[in-house]
Amino acid sequence: MNWDSIEALFARGRGQSPEAREALLGSLDPEEAAQVRSLWASDDETRSFLDSSLITGMVTGVTGSDALSARRPGALVAGRFTLVERLGAGGMGEVFSARDETLGRAVALKFVRPELAASDHARARLEREARALCSLAHPNVCTVHDLVWDGPDPALVMECLGGETLAARLERGRLELGELVSAATAVLSGLAYTHRAGVVHRDLKPANVMLTPTGPKIFDFGIASVSGSDKAAATTITREGRLVGSTSYMSPEQVNGQPVDARSDIFAFGCLLYEMASGRRAFARETELATLAAVLESEPQPVQELAPDLPVGVAAVIARCLQKEPERRFQDATQIDEALRAAAASRSSAVVERAPKGARAWARVAAALAGVVALAGVVAYYATRGSSSPSAPSRDSVAVLPFSGPQGDADIDYIADGLAESVTNSLSRLAGIRVAPRSKAFAYKGKSVSVEDAGRALGVKMIVMGSVARAGSRIRVQAELVDVAAGTQLWGQQFEGGESDLLGMQTELTKMVSLRLTSTTTAAATARLQAGSTVDPKAYQAYLRGRHAQFSLGDSAKANAYFREAMAIDPNYALAYAGFAISYVDGLPAATMARAKAAALRALEIDPTLAEGHLALGLILGWYEFDWAAAEQSLKRALDLQPNDALTHFYYGWLLVHTGRGNDGMAQAQLAFGLDPLNSYIEMGYAQMHYACGQPRVAVERLRSLLNSSDYTWGTWGLAYSHLMLREWQEAIRVLEIYRRTGADSQVTADTYQAFAYKQLGDAARSRQLLNDARRAAERLAPRLPSVAYIRATLAAVAGQREDALEWLRRAVVEHDSAMPFNLASVDPVFEELRADPRYLAITTSVTKAGLTPCQPPRETTAASSQPVPPR
Amino acid sequence: MPASPRDDGGLFAASAAALNSNSPMTPTPGEVTQLLLQVKGQQPGAETRLLELVYGELRKLAAAHMRRERSDHTLSATALAHEAWLRFGKDLPDADLHSRQQFFAVAATAMRRILVEHARARTAEKRGGVAQPIRVENLDAFSTPDDDQLISLDEALAALSELRPRAARIVELRFFGGFSHEQIGGLLGVERRTVDRDWAFARAWLLAALRRPPPAP
Hints:
The complex is a heterodimer.
Chain A: H1 3-13, H2 18-25, H3 30-45, E1 76-77, E2 81-90, E3 93-100, E4 105-112, H4 120-134, E5 144-150, E6 153-159, E7 164-165, H5 166-170, H6 177-196, E8 199-200, E9 209-212, E10 215-218, E11 225-226, H7 252-255, H8 262-278, H9 288-297, H10 303-306, H11 312-321, H12 333-352, H13 356-370, E12 397-400, H14 413-428, E13 434-435, H15 438-442, H16 451-458, E14 462-471, E15 474-483, E16 488-497, H17 502-517, H18 523-529, H19 537-552, H20 556-569, H21 574-586, H22 593-606, H23 611-624, H24 628-641, H25 646-658, H26 662-675, H27 680-692, H28 696-709, H29 715-725, H30 729-740, H31 746-761, H32 764-781, H33 789-798, H34 802-814, H35 819-822, H36 838-847
Helix pairs in contact in A: 1-3, 6-8, 6-12, 8-11, 11-12, 11-13, 12-13, 13-19, 14-17, 14-19, 19-20, 19-21, 20-21, 21-22, 21-23, 22-23, 23-24, 24-25, 25-26, 25-27, 26-27, 27-28, 27-29, 28-29, 29-30, 30-31, 31-32, 31-33, 32-33, 33-34, 34-36
Chain B: H1 10-20, H2 29-40, H3 46-68, H4 77-88, H5 97-127, H6 147-163, H7 165-176, H8 181-188, H9 192-211
Helix pairs in contact in B: 1-3, 2-3, 2-5, 3-4, 3-5, 5-6, 5-7, 6-7, 6-9, 7-9, 8-9
């Protein structure tokens, strides 16, 4: 048989009249004609055959099936209800508006999926659930009147709701604050009520909230499970193998198929609130699967970015609802209601203040504090300028142990970290005081330890310890200074104040400690305590936020925004300028580098002794202007002013690597790592330095173990680079695939270097295809970056266009493309074929001499050489 | 009543035990990712190996499910796919939609094999190995097919794939994999219209085939 013509005829005759079909068949072979007729007959008979997949919601997200559409308006159900109109159908069943002929009222009839009543067990469960639903009576909950049977099919009789759903409302855009609060509190009232009654909704979403003339009502409790009575039924994946719930609003525990309770509804409510405030779903990706993954693993885009005028307290409420672990969310709806009302009310006072941006930053802190307060660990540690032996306590040596507080709240981690940093930085400016490394003191975080043990272990004479707690709307910081040997308290004080007093408390605390530490406290020393600082608590808070974003989260863009905020609030806040400059250098190469340099210079103008200012300037001079000699001077000056700053040592180390002094560079980085071993930013950078110094195998090992235990995804770039250096093409391709998702701008690099790897593997077609992708991506990037010359150079090199590659490299130097040092142009594997070309060497070594020969790890060197390593 | 080993999972429990004993088929998440990349790079043999891995894993998951759900042995296809995905899919780059779909395309084939094996095992238990002809009156029940229906469908699909392989693959992807026509078009590199047409044909053909009396043994 000719199946091509059979198929074609079948397609043409679908839905046609018998006459038309026969005309089509014409002179076809009788056997084939019979086949086509049989196909038409089957086609006519049913359109629902095989329609619904055995797997639902995984790939398509389409759950409903047409199988239920047998019911028609006009039909009489259970001898009493006349169907009026089909309102909708979903995974859980079909809903009709109907008339109750006995009572003469309008109702809604929801036909539950017949599977839910397929067995005695299921029927019993359904009836139990229906009973629970019928017993609910609350103005914000749709009333369920009865459970009736249409033959074998169960149907819930419900209050007929007029109005539009919240989902329909949201299609017109986000809600204004007043509207949002009134809708949200109504929903919360309904939720609190049903939860008290032991009913969990499990599918709360905008489509299940009706905005009626008398206020919002929650409906569609159809899959609600009566808590406690049936554990197995309380999981998301039902016996029938369906994923219950709408993926965008599922809680992580629902996605994982674990038992759910009221706190799942609280997560869903957080999604709802997010969407009301922003007009966007908190978790929505291109496919269901990606959405599920996002629910499990990703944080939603900060709601403030989408709704800049949203009171920060409200944003904090949302964030708390959306915590991945149920324990960390609000535990009941009433709590949310209180927090939400308070947050909305506090808005008016925030508006009265003159600096709205600062007020917002500050209120964010306040909101975070208003949650659960745990200033878990604040530790500072400072090494002296002279003595380096921690085992011999000097007269003025101190360790700051982590402050204790209520357990675990990531939201205020940055306050803890930030306070520690501020205290550290202030104290480290005092001459003659040795402070235990912050990293070592951090080891005591969350542990109880005797003062004596801690003092001995840390090699210090005195210890600062304390606690943070929340008393009503106020914060209480208890701090003391203890003499380790004598075990006596030298000083102790309790500070208490509103959130806006945190800065004052920190300053006072530092001052009191330093007064007792240094017998020779001078006016000059006190002045140094204050160096670069601000008197504005909002500016201070924004600065802390920025530091946290930069060094704990590795998010330069966010850090940059915070620093800018701090600068706006206090235009004389030198530290903020320095931070701003650093975040530019360390982030993407930015067109605004000139602004960063201006900021650094401005910081030094305000305070010429500000180490951070010199650091920032050094970074710009080196990594942007390629003036490594000037950069070195700046970094050395910064180290003079703050000899134990891990970050400065770290960057200085890289400067040495870039200028051909790999051994010294490694030593500096190792020093930085030793000063602050808990700083994963430095650790990652130290690991990466190994490949720059000709030890890609070591880099691979270190990076692998780091990536396993850290969120620092950018380390994948170094890993991929190392594999390329090792000519491990498959592995490089695999890692680049992971690197690709670390950011929108990673694609072009991932494509290019994958293209290079495929070329090495002999897969020319694949390589070409990736190169084309990369070219397109580069075109898209070009308007946003100050220079894409280096990218174009790599593209040309992989494409085998030698002269073009050289020309683009030249342009990269002229255009200050910071990818030159960052990508270690002189050893970049994609330039393999250019390596012998003296022109390539001339260009790249004019910028950086990185790792031209393998370096030894520092511990294996006897005397660190400061001679530049000659080019290979 | 104490449960017999069979009640605890029948065929699946047994095969899972075999698989668990140092099975070379036990995949690691990284291996799956790697294979997906190779499939994408059109490396020969990668897809077969991937199918083996996903199949082996789904079987194990199935066995675990059967042990948990004692009262009726309904395999939760969605739950299985979901678990398999959570196990392997996390490793996949977010942006790589293609690999993700590739995974489910392979899972669709694996799922078909597993469900049919399972159905055959139970049918054999009940009726001494003879599958009954499908009851075509109740087509809607195919959203949750019973054992006989599944076995018949599997055989009809096998016959269809001799004639029109693409149409049969589309049924597999849609029915066992949960793909939409758009997605299938993307996977197979054909236009959505083509998928629609093939689908209509396959459905009519399968229905006609299922109606015919089974060939005499």
